[in-house]
Design goal:
- It is a single chain.
- The chain has 165 residues and is of the alpha+beta class.
- It folds into 2 domains: 93 residues; 32 residues, no CATH class.
- It is 43% helix and 13% strand.
- The protein contains 8 helices and 3 strands, in the order H-H-H-H-E-E-H-H-E-H-H.
- It has a 3-stranded mixed sheet with strand order 1-2-3.
- The N and C termini lie far apart (63 Å).
- The mean pLDDT is 84.
Length: 165
Amino acid sequence: MSKPAPIYKPGPISAKPLAGLLGPTLNEAFAKQGFAARELVTRWAEIAGAQIAAHCEPLKMQWPRPVEGQPQEPATLVLRVEGPMALEIQHSSDQILQRVNRFFGWNAVGKLALRQAPLSRRTRKPAPPPPDPKAVAREASSLEAVEDDDLRLALARLGATIKRK
């Protein structure tokens, strides 16, 4: 009589976050544009402020060649700016430089260069409005078999949202 084939249990799932897998690749891509930290691009709205970030975005950083025996000169931050807002961003350049250097923790950027072009980012769609409370109440009344109040309310909101579309 032959032995039955052994049953293999799958090992533990070792899923890794996407950010951990893409991190080195993204760092390399940003480094080619002169960015020491990719956070300057990914957190631009927090660093520059929402009003400034709505009209410009960092394009690259240009570092001057180091001269032996001399301290490193600060970089030039190149910003892509929407055409009509270029003058306003130019007037805010001191404020932008202060915020960027505060983010880095040292005087990393000495000046700004502006390039007029459309911004590359997509605008976010506004969040859909919540479902009508009357529709939610109608759905909740049909879910009396569900004992958990929070679950019943969540299912009623889901049902009202689905029926709205």
